[in-house]
Amino acid sequence: MGLTPKPVHTDPTQTWEDLDSFLQFTFSEGSKSKEPTVAYIDPDKYVMTTEEILQAGRDNNYQVTLQPDGQIKFE
Known about the structure:
Number of strands: 3
Oligomer: single chain
Low-confidence stretches: none
């Protein structure tokens, strides 16, 4: 018996809780550095729409930018 094909996960699986945990960790750890903290996410991995993520970021005092490659930058 050989290997079966590697699973390809195309359905978004990340939620608001996952995004919040990632950003809280990144920005709390980043505050220990002298460099500005920046985080990038791939919105395709989240169940929320890109616009929902951008708006939530703005509503919560992040500077958010949609990058040309589709990533969202949080500052």
